[in-house]
Amino acid sequence: MKNNRFLSKEMITREQQNFFYHYNSILANPDTILRKIGKNYETYRELKNDPHVWSCIQSRKSGLLALDYYLEENGAKSEVISLLDNYFKTIDLQQLERDILEAPLFGFQPIELVWSFVNDGSGYFVPEKAIPKPQEWFVFDNEGQLRFRTSTNHKGIELPDYKILNVQFEASYINPYGHSLLSKCYWPVTFKNGGIRFWVNFTERYGMPIMVAQYNRGTTSDENQKLLDELAKMTQDAVIVTPMDVNIQLHEAVKTTSVSLFNELIKHCNSEISKVLLSQTLTTELQTGSYAASITHFKIRREVIQSDARLVEQAINKLIQFIVEVNFGLAEKKPKFKIQLPALDEKKD
Questions:
Q1: What's the CA gap between 273 and 93, in Å, rounded?
Q2: Residue 292, C-beta contacts closer than 8 angstroms, at least 6 positions apart
Q3: Burial, 78: exposed, middle or buried (Cβ in 10 Å; 0-12, 13-18, 19+)?
C-alpha cells in the first residue's frame, strides 16, 4: 500500500489550519450567550433560582438517581471487584451521580479527585473525595485537553494524570466545552422574569378599582389636595369622610386582555424551558392531553434517563479505570459500572 504512513496518523489539525496556533494555544469557549453578554458560568448557575428551571432539573436528575447499579465483572480479578465494591459502599455515590449530571447543564463538569490510602492496611490508594469545581476555572487547549487557569497563568497549567474526572456533554473536536442546556434556557428565563416584573407592576396599578372623586367648580387647590390625601388614605383604611357635595366613584380597570397576555408569555417561556431540560412538557406542566400523547412523553422521558445513565456510566467507568490503573497497573482488566434501566411499561387499553 502506497503512502500508508498518512493513514496511521492525524493529518488535518488546527496546527495546519490556523496561522495563530503557536501564539494562542487556548481554545475560546464558543458559547454564544456567554460571549454576547460578557459573563461566565455564574450566569447559568443563577438560572437555577428560577422555580421552573429548578423543578425540571430535579425531575431530570431524580429519574436516574432512583435506579440501582451493579458491577459487571468483565474478566476482572476478585481483588479488583472487592476493592471497587467496598469503595462504592463507602462513598456518597448519589452525590457523585448528581455532580456528574451537572455536565449536561453546563456542557462539562470537572471533578477533582483527592486520593488517600484505605485504612484497612491493604495499601490501596483510592479517591477519598470527589469535588466538583467551577467551570470558569478551566480552559481547553488546542489538543482538547483540560487545563486549570490560575491567577498567574491565563493559559492554564497542565493537570496531572488521575487528578481530574472531566465529564463532557456532547463535546466535539470543534467544541470540547460541550453544549450547555442552561445556555438554551437563558432567554426564556430572561423574558419570563421581565414578564413577571411587568405583571407585578400591572397588578399593583390595576389590581384595585380606580377611585374617582368629583368636586364642584371653585374648590381651592388646598381643598383639592386635602381630598387627594383622603383618597390615598382610603386605599389603606377603606374609610373616608367627605362633604355631601363630593361624589366618589369606583371604576374597575379593564385588564382581562393584559392579564391573559402576561400569563401566555410565562406559560410559553416555561414550556420552552421544559423542552430544553426534559425534551418534553407534559410531566411538568400538568396539562390535559390524550393517552397516546402521555405515552409518547413518558417514552421521551425514559430516553433522557437512558442518555443520562450512559453519561454517568461513562464517567464512573473512567473513575474505575483510574483506581485500577493506580493500584493494579495499566494492563489489568477492569469491571464495568452498569445502571439498571427498567423496561418501558406501556399500559394496555
A1: 28
A2: none
A3: exposed
62 and 164 share one domain: yes
Q: Could you report the per-residue pLDDT of 111-133, keeping only the tens digit for each?
A: 999 999 998 878 999 999 999 99
Surface-to-core class of residue 246, CB atoms within 10 Å of its CB (0-12 exposed, 13-18 middle, 19+ buried):
middle
Name 117's Cβ contacts closer than 8 Å, sequence gap at least 6. 123, 124, 125
Q: Are 283 and 45 in contact (CB under 8 A)?
A: no
Report yes or no on 263 lying in a domain.
no
CA dist., res. 138 & res. 158, Å (int): 11
51 & 137 share domain: yes
Taking only the tens place, the pLDDT of each residue in 146-199 is: 999 998 888 899 999 999 999 999 999 999 999 999 999 999 999 999 988 887
Cβ(245)–Cβ(215) under 8 Å?
yes
Q: For residues 103 and 250, give the distance between their C-alpha atoms in angstroms, rounded to a whole number.
A: 56
Q: Whole domain around residue 226: which residue ranges?
A: 208-252
DSSP character for 267? H
Q: Are residues 129 and 227 in the same domain?
A: no
The C-alpha atoms of residue 212 and residue 284 are separated, in whole angstroms, by 44
Cell output for 31: 458559547
DSSP annotation string for 82-94: HHHHHHHHHS-HH
Is the pTM higher than 0.70? The answer reads yes
Residues 117 and 227 placed together within one structural domain of the fold: no
C-alpha cell at 303: 430516553
